[in-house]
Structures are given as C-alpha cells and as structure tokens.
Design brief:
2 domains, two-stranded antiparallel sheet, 12 helices
C-alpha cells in the first residue's frame, strides 16, 4: 500500500506501547502491509520474543508447547480447565477473510488488546464442496499458506509450521488462541472411512432406511479393508503394515492407518 496514506503517529504509538492497537489502520489496509514490515513493528514493541516465536525450533510442530520458551507460551498454559474462558473477550476470525496465516497477524494490529483471545474458525482440509464446515480430514488446509511468511523464513513452508509461528506471535501479543474443531465431516472423509466405529451408519434404499443396526458399521469396515487389499497402500513404503484382517486394520495407530488408506498429509 502507499506509505503516504499511513498515520505514522499511530504506528509509533503502537510500537512504543502507548496504544494497544493501530487506531487509524483499517483492516483492509493492514492486510496490504508486507509481513516483514509487520515483524519489524512487533520487534520494536515486544523485543526478542518475536524472533524466538519465529525461530526454526519454536515453529517445529513436533515440539510440545511445554518445550517452548516462556516468552512465547500461552498465558493460560498453566490452567487445568477452561474456566478462564468466562473472563476473556474473544474475537472470531475466518482465515478465508484475512487470506492467510500472515493475514491474521496483520489483522490483529487493528484489534484492541481488550480482545485478548482469538477463536480461529475451521482451518482443516475442506471436503468436495470446499466447505470448511465439512472437512475431509484433520490435516490443515493448505489454502492459508502465506508466501510472505515462507519468504521471511525458508523453513516456514507447511501449514503446520506457519500455524505454530502465527500462534507463537499471538501469544507474544498477549492473546490466547483456540481452534474450532467441529463435530461433522464431509460424507466420505478420512475421519469417517478411517474410523467407521466413531460414526452412525445406515443403509438407505429408495429413500427408505432399511438397516440402522451396528451391522452396517461392521459392513463399512469390511468394505474399507477389502478396498485397501485391492488398491494397495496409498504409501507403498507402508506395505509391511498391511494387516491380515479388518479388525487388525482398525487396531493400528491412527497415523499408520491414515497413511495406508489416504497417503501422507497434503496428498489430495
């Protein structure tokens, strides 16, 4: 965006902590800021914690939250229940509105600190209708990947790493982060076919329910297993995990079963 249109005093007030947000910055203008500019602004306001939040180690999704520096942990990390939610002011954000993980950080420059919690609407891999409310899997959607974030740090190339980086930054900004885990899926989702016992099944013919017993779920499980035998594992190197019967398939760890049936995260 045109720098001449920015209210420099408002940026200075934010950087030196005189103001909790950039009052004259419209959300649509915030999204046009370059990510590196936003990081510099956050560094001025919050100091070294910003670089810690963006570091390669801290953005590794395999590192548990308890293993992160205290400077980038959630302020409610020590809570053992959700009672803190009764005293928080939460703002909900649809990532499709702000475009990307980087867009979320930019947008929050326009939100007063009184809103101290961020509720992220569904961000999982969407199903055939591309609806975020009918996810195909528990894998993160790749549509929110930020090229700017990847340019800033070459290791930030996956949605998992970018989400961790974003969450770290929001923690530095004093905000808690929650994700919307919705209890419904796309019709032929990985969740449903990979774990049939977790769902209610029925057989329908000519618009009428003909069977609503537990036997339908067992039939679905058997069909999935037979399909796997006929098609082979989605990840060929996992062939040694191919089980000898239906029951063994669904006793496998979820991650192994998902790779056999659907492939690696990111495969479409």
């Amino acid at each position: 965006m045109d720098p001449s249109k920015l209210d420099e005093d408002a940026f200075v007030a934010y950087a030196d902590r005189t103001a909790s947000f950039i009052s004259s910055l419209r959300p649509q203008d915030a999204l046009e800021l370059h990510f590196s500019t936003v990081i510099e602004l956050l560094r001025t306001r919050y100091g070294p914690a910003v670089d810690t939040a963006m570091s390669q180690e801290a953005t590794d999704p395999r590192v548990p939250g308890s293993g992160l520096s205290r400077s980038i942990r959630s302020r409610v990390a020590a809570h053992t229940d959700s009672s803190w939610m009764r005293r928080t002011n939460m703002v909900g954000v649809n990532l499709r509105t702000v475009g990307s993980f980087a867009g979320l950080v930019k947008y929050l420059l326009t939100v007063p600190s009184a809103f101290d919690s961020v509720h992220l609407l569904p961000l999982w891999e969407p199903g055939v209708a591309e609806s975020l409310y009918g996810p195909a899997s528990w894998n993160l959607s790749t549509e929110f990947l930020s090229e700017e974030m990847a340019e800033f740090a070459p290791y930030l190339t996956t949605p998992e790493r970018q989400l961790r980086a974003t969450t770290n930054l929001l923690h530095v900004m004093g905000r808690t982060v929650g994700m919307d885990v919705i209890p419904h899926t796309d019709r032929y989702s990985e969740m449903a076919l990979g774990q049939p016992a977790h769902f209610e099944w029925m057989q329908v013919r000519n618009g009428r329910i003909t069977d609503h017993s537990d036997a339908v779920e067992r039939t679905v499980s058997e069909v999935v297993y037979q399909w796997l035998l006929e098609s082979g594992p989605a990840v060929p190197s996992k062939a040694e995990l191919l089980p000898g019967d239906t029951e063994t398939l669904f006793d496998l760890p979820e991650s192994d079963r998902a790779e056999l049936l659907f492939g690696l995260p990111g495969d479409r």
